[in-house]
Amino acid sequence: MTTVEIAGREGGRVNLTPDLLDDLRARIEGRVLRPDDAGWDDAVLVWNAMAARTPALVVQPVSARDVAAAVGFARVHGLLLSVKGGGHNIAGTAVAEGGLTLDMAGMREVSVDPDARLAHVGPGCLLSDVDRATQQHGLATVLGFISEVGVAGLTLGGGFGYLMRRFGWAVDNLDEVEIVTADGGIRTANGVQNAELFWALRGGGGNFGVITRFTFRLHRVGPMITGGLILWDADRAGEILAGYRELTGTAPRELTAAVVMRIAPPAPFIPAPWHGRHIIAMLVCHSGPNADADLAPVRALGDPIADLITEKPYVEQQSMMDGTEPKGEHYYWKTEHLLGLPDGFLAAFRAGALKVPTVCSESVIFHIGGAANERADDDGAVGNRDSRYITGFAGAWPAGTAPDTHRAWVRESWARIRPFSTGGNYVNFQLAEDDTARTADAYGKNFERLRRVKADYDPHNLFRVNRNIAPAG
Ligand SMILES: Cc1cc2nc3c(=O)[nH]c(=O)nc-3n(C[C@H](O)[C@H](O)[C@H](O)COP(=O)(O)OP(=O)(O)OC[C@H]3O[C@@H](n4cnc5c(N)ncnc54)[C@H](O)[C@@H]3O)c2cc1C
Prior knowledge:
By secondary structure, this protein is of the alpha+beta class. Helix content is 27%, strand content 24%.
């Protein structure tokens, strides 16, 4: 191996001589990759092609000891370091430009203890890995709507999905983690051990170390649920949105419903005459008894273009939207938290949604109100405990197309709905362009406490390729 020039943490370049690289290889049981090595392209691939970056070196650890060795190496040699879980972060923070990326794909094991109702989850797992393993026992924890997303990034930022109304944020179901901190120590954090660190990890992102194991509490769910999509003509958007507000105002926590407005893609489940026309849809998941009765108000809206709500396995529901946001396109999102859906918001949302410039983009409202609202705002760093909905505009377009029209649509639509925001936004949906003030907004009054924990565990900001929280002082 020749000398590798690699980005330094404080700027500039660091030369890693062959001796130093041999030393790294000798300490790592997993792989150390350079651009010509097999597996490099997958190791550096991120979901949002607009945020693609190229590191100089990738380490693929297979154990916490490997992670500790790589973290120590990056610290001692002053290297720019990033950590990649599922690679889905829209800001592309999984990969350090010119630096060292820890790709956790080699640590993808899940073990379920059905008696204790716990799942021990490797940091390279995708949501589908966990859902498949836990559902074998009729159990599940709170994870997101697209099964190809990484468990690590989703959980560390908070994590919401179909089960959030029943069981809170994903982090509300986190029992314990194993973490390698900036000093290279392998620690356990839970409600008792390193409790302040555990508080920060429950929403504070990848700022405090590298998680090498997550332990989640599980709940009885499925394995069959009632769920799917129901679609209407967007000319009826006013009426459907009002129906959605009424439904979500009274729905039991077993029922989660989201609204999606978009141009209908040429998908086989949408009747051909509707392809290319504006539609409004509800995506629903009912994980309890009485689904038909609870979904009656949805069906009472009448005259759908297609009604695809049916009884199905929970794992199928968890992956049914995967095709809607494929890897490798360009993406640009803006989101906000909401307390409710006043008329002014619904009118602004509809006006923005109807101006969407492409068939790939969409406007969404997720209902999250329920269990998470019942905890104190400082119960975990995730905060936003007053929020009942997350809404946003998701611009998507093929690589190679000029971004201006798409970004302008998102920004203009976002400006319309911003007056209705709680002031909070979801950190896991932030873009690379979003500044520290927006990250601070995502945490509200928990932000300063996060900065103090950062100062305790990572005073030199080794973990900075993320939605960064600078150490206090
Ligand atoms: C198509 C799509 C759908 C989504 N749907 C949902 C949803 O339904 N609900 C929801 O809550 N969110 C959702 N998200 C947002 C998602 O939570 C974030 O994109 C999240 O960052 C993805 O995690 P990842 O592991 O794939 O990300 P990566 O890009 O791999 O990592 C993101 C960041 O997480 C940190 N990180 C990753 N692994 C570790 C580790 N082992 N230790 C320490 N830090 C680590 C690092 O700081 C890294 O920069 C969605 C995103 C996409 C693209």
